[in-house]
Design a protein that fits this description.
2 copies of one chain form a homodimer. Chain A is α+β, with helices and mostly antiparallel strands. The first copy, chain A, folds into 2 domains: 138 residues, PurM-like, N-terminal domain (60s Ribosomal Protein L30, Chain: A, 2-Layer Sandwich), CATH 3.30.1330; 169 residues, Phosphoribosyl-aminoimidazole Synthetase, Chain A, domain 2 (Alpha-Beta Complex). Helix content of chain A is 34%, strand content 25%. In chain A, helix 5 packs across helix 8. The longest helix of chain A is centred in the first third of the chain and has 18 residues. Chain A is globular, with a radius of gyration of 20 Å. The first copy, chain A, starts with a helix and ends in a 10-residue tail after the last strand. Chains A and B meet through helix 1, strand 1, strand 2, helix 2 and strand 3 of A and helix 1, strand 1, strand 2, helix 2 and strand 3 of B.
């Protein structure tokens, strides 16, 4: 691309995404300015996506843009924060087409409008490796009220929003591993994988009524284990109670080994639902404040060694692979 | 590496780097919390380094860690901010050795202590491409007092700290392009390339006495042009006045084409000095507050088309390549 390509792309496609944030200085400065409202703190989180590792390299770049934002906003949701702004660090592949760049900017434009967030800065470069997108997202949370992983207590319920395992099925469908799904169910799980919906609407109820939270990115079992470990507790999960979509139920019904299949759904990751520790007496209030998000109790945090145990039909079930790790 | 490798590395090497920042929650949470002191704003900046593009792939990883921090802290310095914290997003190469990971953590540990900053969060993953390090750095600046690129006015002096072109010579030495330098000069320019010193000590004087600033990363001519463009002005630079180190002077004396050689030094980038627009009447106060950093007037901002012009011995000199662009 021409020597002016980088500056031109920033000026033409990225700078307009910062127009709503005066402290971004039109992306023309060394950095941006951000200040939380009085009485608030900033919640900050970062997630990196690498083509071929975290998403398929031939994915629509507008969808990739959405995923890059959504996985970060989901972390803010798990802290009980309201999303405000993001920084973007891109390493383009050497052979990046104009279509890739334009589609990516189209996606950012659409998605940031949907979530009401603003691009405030970052860095673009290119390299010999795969396309790499690193987003740092900023949210606001009332001072001292952020929901952390470490707040669970003995006897708290393990609660999860929505349904679990759809994104894993969606990834299998994208990989052409062809789970036995009809066309409508396949579209549903692919959408769950490609456009996860961060549970930002729960932020206030979470701050008021949950003791700990995490977003389900590594896999439900792994992520509940993270809460347990951070809180110095154990967690017992009942595989029977994990909420499944009609698509996942249909897939499950066709599997020869229902325990193994359920374990796959509970370990697959990328659902971006919220998993929480909730005092038994606070569940009704959390439900009332959840804005209609389905909540399911799937287990309990208990004093004991900081570990996860899983049961299926009342019997202990071995956890082979609790979730995703990168190396 | 084993399935536990990622979590183990974070717990063993990265989490201790967050110990001084309670809002980082030991890197065990979805995100970190950060709040500027009352009356202050946060300045935020991000820079990505790719092995083989921004640094040599066989560089000591502790040096790479330092560079990743320093180039970001330099952006904070250019805004007149005090550095406080950073987020780190790493994509390890598939074949990353334990030595690479440990050396990188050693470097971060040493460098963050030197600059008094804290690791507060981020993301680690791995991929098939080169090692990629993206840092987002946070600083504090009194509300409304950040120094921006857009503040220059007609008649302001173009002022630069330190000496220019050393890092470019250092890169040539690293690339074994063997500039004609004796051993001591070669060590000096290599050090300037590998361990740039962000001009954080100037932050207060910059806020008080400079109208606009940028750090010299793309090349002095390009970076002064960025100030000029952001301020809607032109800038005239005198190549004769660009401050050179004894090493650069020695190299220059051996070059057949002194104009071309000076142009190379003024276009090379990576010096991480500060280039500023300073009202003529404020230069003495800026000098007095600079903590001993050498300041040199090398030109002037003027009303006119937002562009850069360069003279050499009083004659216009053509700018072939004003600085670095990534694609």
């Amino acid at each position: 691309m021409s020597a002016g390509g980088e500056f031109d792309y920033i000026a033409r496609r990225l700078a307009p995404l910062s127009a709503g944030w005066p402290g971004a200085a039109g992306l023309k400065d060394d950095g941006a300015l951000i200040t939380p409202a009085p009485g608030y703190e900033l919640a900050v989180t970062a997630d990196t996506l690498v083509a071929g590792v975290h998403f398929l390299a031939d994915e629509d770049p507008a969808v990739t843009a959405g995923r890059a934002l959504r996985v970060n906003l989901s972390d803010l949701a798990a802290m009980g924060a309201q999303a405000r702004a993001y920084m973007l660090a891109i390493v383009w592949p050497k052979d990046a087409s104009d279509g890739l760049r334009e589609g990516f900017a189209d996606g950012l434009e659409r998605e940031q409008a949907h979530f009401g967030v603003h691009l405030i800065g970052g860095d673009t470069t290119s390299g010999p490796g795969p396309w790499t997108i690193s987003v740092t997202a900023f949210g606001e949370v009332p001072a001292g009220r952020a929901v952390r992983r470490s707040g669970a207590r003995d006897g708290d319920l393990a609660v999860v929003t929505g349904t679990i395992g759809d994104a894993w099925l969606g990834l299998q469908a994208e990989l052409k591993a062809r789970p036995a799904l009809d066309a409508a169910h396949e579209r549903f799980v692919q959408e769950r994988f490609t456009r996860p919906e961060p549970r930002l609407a729960l932020a206030e109820a979470l701050r008021e009524h949950a003791r700990a939270a995490i977003d389900v990115s590594d896999g439900l079992i792994a992520d509940l284990s993270h809460i347990a470990r951070a809180s110095g507790l154990g967690v017992r999960m009942e595989l029977d109670r994990i909420p499944l979509s009609p698509a996942a139920e249909a897939w499950l019904a066709a599997q020869a080994d229902p325990l193994r299949a359920r374990m796959q759904l509970a370990s697959g990751g990328d659902d971006y639902e919220l998993a929480m520790a909730v005092a038994p007496g606070a569940l009704d209030a959390l439900t009332a404040g959840s804005g209609g998000a389905p909540l399911t109790v799937i287990g309990r945090f208990e004093a004991g060694p900081p570990d996860a145990s899983v049961t299926w039909r009342g019997e202990p079930a071995p956890v082979e692979h609790g979730g995703f790790t990168h190396f």
